[in-house]
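Protein entry
_____________
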Amino acid sequence: MNGGDYRTAGFPPWRVLAVLMPALLLWGMRPAHAIPAFASQTGQPCTACHIGAYGPQLTPFGRAFKIGGYTMSGGQGLASKIPLSAMVLSSLTQTSANQPSPPAPHFARNTNPAIDQVSVFLGGRINDYLGGMMQGTYNGIAVTEHLDNSDLRATDEFDIGSNTLRVGISVNNGPTVEDPYNTTFAWGYPYVASALAPATTPQPLLAGGLIANTLGTTAYAWWNSHLYVEAGAYQLMDDRTAKTLGVYPQFANGTGAIPYARVAYEWDWNDQSAEVGAMYLHAAVQPLDSPGGGSDYYTDFAIDGSYQYMGDSKNIYTLNGIFVHEEQNLRATFGAGGAATPHKSLNQFRVNGTWVHDETYQLTLGMQETYGTADSTLYSGNTEGKPNNTEFIAEADWIPFGKDNSWGRPFANLKLGVQFIHYTTFDGGNTNYGGSGLNASGNDTLYAFAWFIF
């Protein structure tokens, strides 16, 4: 993409980020995703913060650590003072039918081994009030480097009578990156997926379209560890910032700030927890392929909920769900002839459940359904002219480390997994979608991976 196509005015949040980044790099290396730097800093095993000893699914303790600005301490020795971690993800992708063409340069139409990504993390506490996490990633599929999910915070806690109130500010690179619940999209299921398999394209903007290509500031409050309220604004990166961070946005420009708001309420009782919440996002953005300029408008509303049964850690159960409704006014796309009508809606429902045995063996089942207004022009790639997609996911994982007495603690953790995705609807159809002679089930994907972090 041509960087000059998405130049925007400067926005204070990434000026703040530009100041905080070098501060994190140079603060004397003290302070963290399930990164060993967090475990070293707190003196806790990975199981304290993460379901099944491996992230990113958080326990109540892990959510408190994140909302608390990654500032919790308690570790001892040299390891607790080193805020660096690294991650390597390798995989093998096999689809039910050969893809029409190779999914990326230097790969085959099927049966593709890959080094998906290599990441370096810098994260943890700076002091009692400042902390954060930054992830830099090498993408082995696209052969690029970029700033991945990153979240820098300033926070403090106050006693108000018998109540507690934590307030904070987060500077981060996309809506839901800062969110403490795994119902949302930056840290939602599937927690890892193949970049070499066919992917369904119509997605609500909240489902990731602004993650990594925006920067923003949100303010939040957490009352009595139950009520979580957050609000702020994002903006697409300007040309220079995007190039520096290795980001290639989906849009040419943004019109002003993108407001975002989040509210959630959590109950914790008898080694169990439950949460219900809602989100709001509104964005005006210029499509990359809109020569006439102008903006498309997206308004997203979401409701989410989760449940966790921790028990005695012998058997752990979790359930996460989210529904997003998006109202679209595609003025620019319609004006450029890319849509039959400007006004549309798009909906997406995701749900997943996990069973963990002995904090080592993990089984997750999930499904995702997307549906919305038909438009044979906008969705010209399929015979139905619909954005509809339905997929079912099953995943089995083995996590041998990450416990209190594990080998390599706190420096190493590993997840070996096999994931299978079955499509009943793909790009609007079940059979012969897009007039290509392909069936939705031809995109069924077997994804075996080794995910190592140290």
Notes: Confidence is low (pLDDT under 50) at residues 1-32.
